[in-house]
Design goal:
Blueprint lengths: L1 H10 L5 E15 L13 E15 L2 E14 L2 E17 L3 H30 L12 H19 L1
Antiparallel strand pairs: 1-4, 2-3, 3-4
Helix pairs in contact: 2-3
Subcellular location: Cytoplasm
Family: Belongs to the SecB family.
Keywords: Chaperone, Cytoplasm, Protein transport, Translocation, Transport
């Protein structure tokens, strides 16, 4: 019996572990409330991008991370279109301390999901007969660091 335990322990990978189990679209929404009239006007869009992430623990080593992109495009003060994509992934994450786990789920995973979400947004926009909308890359490491700094500032204000 002890030999089996030693063999099992030897097979266990040491150190941090990370793998992508699945990447999928969780939800998609597209609205063009002012069509077809929006197509008759000069095109000078104002683009607003909102991003959000949500993490759900599925098991001790599996996490579902959802990156939500909401893009609102206005043309001459009218909403040309609104598109929302929830791009998700199931990730195996183990052997990390709390700080490494936070960074992996809060920055690394959204960084992996963003190209998929960006492509889904662009595909929906072009299928709706609007000009392509290739969103600029996002620095999720900087956003995560900014979020941590805000949380630390709020915690120090409360004490």
């Amino acid at each position: 019996m002890a030999e089996n335990d030693q063999a099992a322990a030897a097979e266990q990978p040491q150190g941090p572990q990370f793998s992508i189990q699945r990447i999928y679209v969780k939800d998609v929404s597209f609205e063009s409330p002012n069509s077809p009239q929006v197509f008759t006007k000069q095109w000078s869009p104002e683009v607003n991008l909102e991003m959000n992430t949500r993490t759900t623990q599925l098991s001790p080593e599996h996490y579902d991370v959802v990156l939500t992109l909401t893009v609102t495009v206005k043309n001459e003060d009218e909403t040309a279109f609104l598109v929302e994509v929830q791009q998700a992934g199931i990730f195996h994450v183990a052997g990390m301390n709390e700080q490494e786990m936070g960074h992996t789920l809060g920055a690394f995973c959204p960084n992996l999901l963003f190209p998929y979400a960006r492509e889904a947004v662009d595909s929906l926009v072009t299928k709706a007969s609007f000009p392509p909308l290739m969103l600029a890359p996002v620095n999720f490491d900087a956003l995560y660091a900014q979020q941590l700094a805000q949380q630390q500032a709020q915690a120090s204000e409360q004490h």
